[in-house]
């Protein structure tokens, strides 16, 4: 199975909060990321969190990290239609002298009026 | 933030031909770049790590003779899909990280992707 797991779909009403969840398996991961991908486009880094942090807030985005359970979540407050996209959770794994970023399957967020 | 440019954005080629995709870091030097492949409605799969001045490191299951990677300079890595077949049709994305350690090295910057269609 996937090393980084996410639910595939999430539908929320405009103005509500969206919470996207992710679980990972590598306890040695140093950084965990949330990326956004709009249709046909590349990836946009939304935010990241260092593994010794529990929470990080950046405007409408809140990241929560439970290292014990290897669970990461992204909360988007006041969700807007422009937030419709695929959101990827990713972890940075160190291999010898380099670090690789491994992605989850992505969660497709759709906004309903 | 730092910019990574990928070219071309899309390409259509005939089966059996080779296609080269370029990835450039425009305002920083990248000793390491990464190549990903994304199938429709799926996640990004890491194909290989491109190391400047040395051989690329391929992930398990990725054919190195099929996907040739060259990282000849600190700002350019190329991926060549050799003898392309329809099953190679995909979205290919490169990324590069700022050199350094710790906080400075956290963010990976991604190119806009190349959509390859083999007919």
Would you give an account of this structure?
Chain A has strands spanning 4-6, 9-13, 18-24, 31-37, 43-50, 55-58, 61-66, 71-76, 85-95, 98-103, 107-112. Chain A is an all-beta fold and 113 residues long. By secondary structure, chain B is mainly beta. Chain B contains no helices and eleven strands. Chain B has strands at residues 4-7, 10-13, 19-25, 32-38, 44-51, 57-58, 67-73, 76-81, 90-97, 108-110, 114-118. In chain B, the strands form two sheets. In chain B, strands 2, 4, 5, 6, 9, 10 and 11 form a seven-stranded mixed β-sheet that branches. In chain B, strands 1-3-8-7 form a four-stranded antiparallel β-sheet, with no helix packed on it. At the A-B interface, strand 4, strand 5 and strand 10 of A face strand 4, strand 5, strand 9 and strand 10 of B.
Key words describing this protein structure:
heterodimer, A: 113 residues, mainly beta, six-stranded mixed sheet, five-stranded antiparallel sheet, B: 119 residues, seven-stranded mixed sheet, four-stranded antiparallel sheet, 11 strands, 51% strand, globular
Any chance you could write out the topology, listing elements then pairs?
The complex is a heterodimer of chains A (113) and B (119).
Chain A: E1 4-6, E2 9-13, E3 18-24, E4 31-37, E5 43-50, E6 55-58, E7 61-66, E8 71-76, E9 85-95, E10 98-103, E11 107-112
Parallel strand pairs in A: 2-11
Antiparallel strand pairs in A: 1-3, 3-8, 4-5, 4-9, 6-7, 7-8, 9-10, 9-11
Chain B: E1 4-7, E2 10-13, E3 19-25, E4 32-38, E5 44-51, E6 57-58, E7 67-73, E8 76-81, E9 90-97, E10 108-110, E11 114-118
Parallel strand pairs in B: 2-11
Antiparallel strand pairs in B: 1-3, 3-8, 4-5, 4-9, 5-6, 7-8, 9-10, 9-11
